[in-house]
Amino acid sequence: MNPQHEPAPAGHHHAPAAPITTPVTASLVRGALDLEHGQYGLLPHRLPAWARAQIPDQHLGLAEARPAGVRLAFRTRATTLELDAHRTTTRYAGMADLALPEGVYDLVVDGGLTARGVLSGGDVLTLDPSTGDTSTVPGPVGTVRFTDLPDRVKDVEIWLPHTEITQLVALRSDAPLDASPGQGRRVWLHHGSSISHGSNAASPTSTWPAVAASLGGVDLVNLGFGGGALLDPFTARSMRDTPADLISVKIGISLVNVDLMRLRAFTPAVDGFLDTLREGHPGIPLLVISPLLCPLHEDTPGPLVPDSSSGTLAFRALGDPAERTAGKLTLTVIRDELARVVSRRAAQDPHLHYLDGLDLYGRGDAEDLPLPDGLHPDTATHHRIGERFAARVFGAGGPFAAAG
């Protein structure tokens, strides 16, 4: 998945339906923790229903339903595939610059990115951040079509958009397809913020966790939630109960963005989160990742607000650096504290590891790949982060290196 050699876009014109319809069932879906039967079709979720009932705000509810890392996986000889799906795109009242980009479907054949496509139609959800009010303009089901696939038996994945809520309606092909038998790969369960969710990456396989998973040869379960890496206990319990061979948690930026807690609350919250993970996964590799570089918040606390005064979307931190003495969190404070907590716990937990986020994206990177909006990386930066993570974590001597 070399970002410099993009695949040809998938066909998006009207065409006769392929003759074989395969029901979209759980056996075809990878990377979701729950599947709900929605108004139009199967709706993937990245938190289970009991956890969704505990979500205290709309933003996390929307984020977990955007299927980052979720894909359909199957084996087929088909040369043409059609997926009917219904999307929900999100707009923010009075904040046109915050509209999420149009969702992209990535087609991966035998591990290689082969084509991309987009849907038309779908609902448009408008959210007023100042009041919490929402309104929806309904739209129809759309179809994404992939043609000219190689005429041989192959393993196929259709990665769903990480920026849109998606209901899976129907899957058609010109040859039978069966659920992928799997390749015995290890399952990597990752939790993080909007950067892990995919932020400004161009497509679902361009997010840094997807890049790292591809290079590391693992099956990804991505619990990156835009604005939602807040040490919520329901997220920890969901991860505790999810089968996994490798677990990582990236902690920090969301907490500072919303100015959620002080240092006194942060440290026991981290301990509690890790304790819960260890209840379900007592002996597997567990990696704690501190924040990537974000100059806005290195030494300035939150909260963070959008700022379009320059004519383009950016962000501005409202905190005062002097407030650190009162326990307000900054990224520098969080890195120091996470390193201390992991060092203390690792004395009794030899499979617990720490990775400084500055090793993935630091000051040198900010000079040649600056964050376009001051907060989120673009596609090229996602690839750099994913490649570095794969080398440091999945590579020889890394905490997720394969045995032997």
- Strand content of the residues, in percent? 25-35%
**In whole angstroms, how far apart are the ends?**
26 Å
Number of strands: 22
Q: List segments where confidence is low: pLDDT < 50 over at least 5 consecutive residues.
A: 1-6, 11-18
Envelope shape: globular
Structural class: alpha/beta
Mean pLDDT: 92
Radius of gyration: 21 Å
Describe the main β-sheet briefly: 7 strands, mixed
Helix content: 10-25%
Helix count, DSSP H or I runs of 4 or more residues: 10
Give a description of the structure.
The protein is an alpha/beta fold and 404 residues long. Helix content is 23%, strand content 27%. Strands 1, 3, 6, 8, 9, 13 and 15 form a seven-stranded mixed sheet that branches. Strands 2, 7, 10, 11, 12 and 14 form a six-stranded mixed sheet that branches. The protein is globular, with a radius of gyration of 21 Å.
What is the compact description of this entry?
This protein is of the alpha/beta class.
Task: Identify the notable features of this structure and list them briefly.
404 residues, alpha/beta, 6-stranded mixed β-sheet, 22 strands, globular, disordered N terminus
Topology, element by element:
Layout: E1 8-9, E2 20-22, E3 29-30, E4 34-37, E5 42-45, H1 49-52, H2 58-65, E6 71-76, E7 81-92, E8 105-109, E9 112-117, E10 123-127, E11 134-137, E12 142-146, E13 154-159, E14 165-173, E15 177-179, E16 187-192, H3 194-197, H4 208-216, E17 219-224, H5 233-240, E18 246-250, H6 253-257, H7 263-280, E19 286-289, E20 304-307, E21 314-317, H8 331-346, E22 352-355, H9 363-368, H10 379-394
